[in-house]
Amino acid sequence: MMTICESNVAKIEAICKEYNCDKGELINVLHQTQNTFGYLPEDVQEIIAENLQTSLAQVYGVVSFYSFFTMIPKGKHPVNICKGTACYVRGAEKIIDEFKTLLDINIGETTADEKFSLSSLRCIGACGLAPVVLIGDKVYGRVTLDSVKEILDEYQ
Predict the structure, then answer these.
(1) The listed CATH number (3.40.50.12370, 3.40.50.2300, 3.40.30.10, 3.30.1330.30) that belongs to domain 77-153
(2) Which of 49, 96, 126, 128 has the maximum number of C-beta atoms within 10 A of its C-beta?
(3) What does the pLDDT read at residue 104?
């Protein structure tokens, strides 16, 4: 759980003020806040709800509905593995298993050193490169079991 100190409260309030504390700007406020803190724990959501004069349930509903928002901290290097049809058929599950083994975490978890987090996606639209792995904004195509370690080594 994130500790909300006065300076962090001030940052959240400033973000809300940038959007005139308009509850219609909730998604924009959430995006900017997540970009600032890396995730949106409950105490951050409470401050946003207060500043936008909306319910915590409304804020939580938006955060939990959209997959790009997270309530848990992500690793410095988020690893996303595509599980769309083309990637799945070309071995995405085995690629996921290799990442899980090498990172010693499961889907939805972050390594103890907070360096990597592991997620899967439905489709990123790069079917010709299947199976595809995203680390941050970098796309790795035609990933093989042997290349997983090489990919991770780039970030060590």
Answers:
(1) 3.40.30.10
(2) 96
(3) 97
